[in-house]
Amino acid sequence: MKDIIIAVADVYMEKVLEALLHRVPQSSGTATYTYDIIRNPGHDSGSYNDSHELLRPFITQYKFALVLFDLEGCGAEHNKTREEISKDVGDLLNKNGWENRNEVIVIEPELENWMWIDNHHVADAIGWEDNESLYQWARNGGHIKNDKSKPDRPKETLEKALRVSRTPKSAAIYKKIAGNVSYKKCTDESFLQLISKLQEWFPAV
Q1: Count of domains in the chain?
Q2: For position 172, what pLDDT does the model report?
Q3: What DSSP assignment string belongs to 39-74?
Q4: Partner of 184 at 20 to 30 A CA spacing, among 4, 30, 95, 196?
């Protein structure tokens, strides 16, 4: 039996996790673990509505199930909180074979919030060559408010930065960022939830 089956909403999440998960044991003091990643064909809305069905075939093959998707685009973002949406999906998983062995991570507003860390590796990954630093550009342009460390619209801001640097958007860029940037400075609640759950499931021996 393998350790974790991970259902994600798209290829961007898949590549981020591929780069990130092998770093966690050394960086965050967990035991090693095995995992497989699958994509939900319904993307964020499918992840909210049918993750329990997508993961049903794997109940006896994995110890744990992990679901990740964006708040924006899931279909419930206008009338429910991130925590309520996570609970909805978790309740369905609990009732469908994954009781007490699942975690649902809803990223608010979207995955790109994980990418915005003030680190030269982020600028390098998107080919940023302006004399003004990437973060200073984002602040001067009003994308990052003075009292915050991340843009209010992380996806749109990253896509604009890619256009400025004339770099085509690709999942490889996300994977490069996740594979090189120290995540110790990441303050995103959903990211911290992921690390905390891995530490709980796989404590260092």
Answers
A1: 2
A2: 97
A3: E-TTHHHHHHHHHHHHHGGGTTTEEEEEEEEESTTS
A4: 4
Mean pLDDT computed over every residue of the chain: 97
| Burial class of residue 41, CB neighbours in 10 A (0-12, 13-18, 19+) | exposed
Report pLDDT digits (tens) over 136-172. 999 999 999 988 999 999 999 999 999 999 999 999 9
Same-domain pairing of 95 and 196: yes
Residues 79 and 162 in one domain: no
For residues 44 and 65, give the distance between their C-alpha atoms in angstroms, rounded to a whole number: 17
Report the candidate in 152, 158, 63 with the shortest Cα–Cα distance to residue 101: 63
What pLDDT score does 146 carry?
Answer: 85
pTM across the whole model: 0.96
Which structural domain range is residue 83 located in? 2-111+180-201
29-32 own/partner pairs: CB under 8 Å, 24+ apart: 29/199, 29/204, 30/198, 30/199, 30/201, 30/202, 30/203, 30/204, 31/202, 31/203, 31/204, 31/205, 32/202
Residue 132: the pLDDT is 95
User: What span, in angstroms and rounded, lies between the C-alpha atoms of 188 and 108?
Assistant: 8
Residues 21, 199: Cα–Cα separation, whole Å: 12
